[in-house]
Amino acid sequence: MTDEKSLVSGFDTSAAEPRLDEGGVLGSIGRTGASRRQFIKGVIASGAVVSSAGYVFGGLGGCSMEQPAGGAAAGGVERLISLMVNGETRRVDVLPFETLAMTLRYKLGLTGTKLGCDRAECGACTVLLDGVSTYSCSTLTHTVRNKAIRTVEGLEGPNGELHPVQQAMIDELGPQCGFCTPGQVMSAVGLLETNPNPTRDEVRHALSGNLCRCGAYDHYLNSVMRAARA
Ligand code: FES
Ligand code: FES
Q1: 123-149: per-residue pLDDT in tens?
Q2: How far apart are the CA of 125 and the centre of ligand 2, in A?
Q3: For 152-197, how does the pLDDT look when each residue is reduced to its tens digit (9 = 90+)?
Q4: Could you give phi then psi for residue 227, rounded to 5 degrees?
Q5: 20 to 30 A from 119, CA-CA: which of 15, 39, 51, 216?
Q6: Atom 4 (ligand 2): residue with closest C-alpha?
Q7: What is the number of the ligand 2 atom nearest to the C-alpha of 178?
Q8: What are the residue ranges of CATH 3.10.20.30 in the chain?
Q9: Residue nearest atom 2 of ligand 2, based on CA coordinates
Q10: Class (C level, CATH) for 72-229
Q11: Minimum-distance ligand to the CA of 218?
């Protein structure tokens, strides 16, 4: 019976099966007394850990958060630039290949913009650039210095009230886990500002770049149609 320790390490040192005694990694595992089967289990376990780490830290692919003193990093040197975010000028140090999602979330503290895939597949990171819905995970920050950037935080009314699209999504029970919601909201706002009376198909098309793992698509469609009627 595998004990708790072997579940963590991936192999049981008490087993009597043939041992691996080659050099390198195999050798070091062999010296611990691991069997072939236990070694394979260990590799699978460590592979799972690597995969999980890739998922957790995948969102950091847009820039290195570890930099030596002076701002130099593997991707280059940061440069101080001005961005127009939600109607305000924000000064921020940006690496040459830093994505807008990284800048917004980790340097400007605008965490309403989510990072899902970090590779232009899910739409969680959608923001408006000059009114056009755009994946911020696939947009270099240096390329948007002359654009008006709007994030979900920028939709708040003067007295803290929700944007009509946000209110409609609440009314129609759009958000389930809510992870995709800011992206859905920004795509919907971008649509309604250019087309205030869209057909259901036009809404469907506008939101087609926003994946919802909870499958709440009809709720989001109903929400945008409701907001258009408001
Ligand atoms: S995080 Fe940008 S498209 Fe998925
Ligand atoms: S509400 Fe959960 S991913 Fe869309």
Answers
A1: 999 999 999 999 999 999 999 999 999
A2: 13
A3: 999 999 999 999 999 999 999 999 999 999 999 999 999 999 999 9
A4: -65, -35
A5: 216
A6: 212
A7: 1
A8: 72-229
A9: 177
A10: alpha beta
A11: 2
Give me the phi and psi of 102, to 5 degrees please: -65, -45
Of ligand 2's listed atoms, the one at least distance from the Cα of 174 is: 1
Q: What is the pLDDT of residues 55-79, one digit of tens each?
A: 333 444 454 444 444 444 556 899 9
- Closest-CA residue, ligand 1 atom 3, reads 120
Ligand nearest the Cα atom of residue 139: 1
> Are residues 49 and 70 in contact, defined by beta-carbon separation less than 8 angstroms?
no
Which whole-number Å values give the CA distances from 156 to 72, 149, 163, 207, in the listed order? 36, 14, 6, 21
CA of 165 relative to ligand 2 center, distance in Å: 16
DSSP state of 99: B
The Cα 110–Cα 28 span in angstroms is 46
Q: Judging by beta carbons within 10 Å of its beta carbon (0-12, 13-18, 19+), is residue 189 exposed, middle or buried?
A: buried
State the pTM of this model: 0.71
At 1, the amino acid letter reads M
Which residues contact ligand 1 via a Cβ below 6 A? Answer: 115-118, 120-125, 135, 137
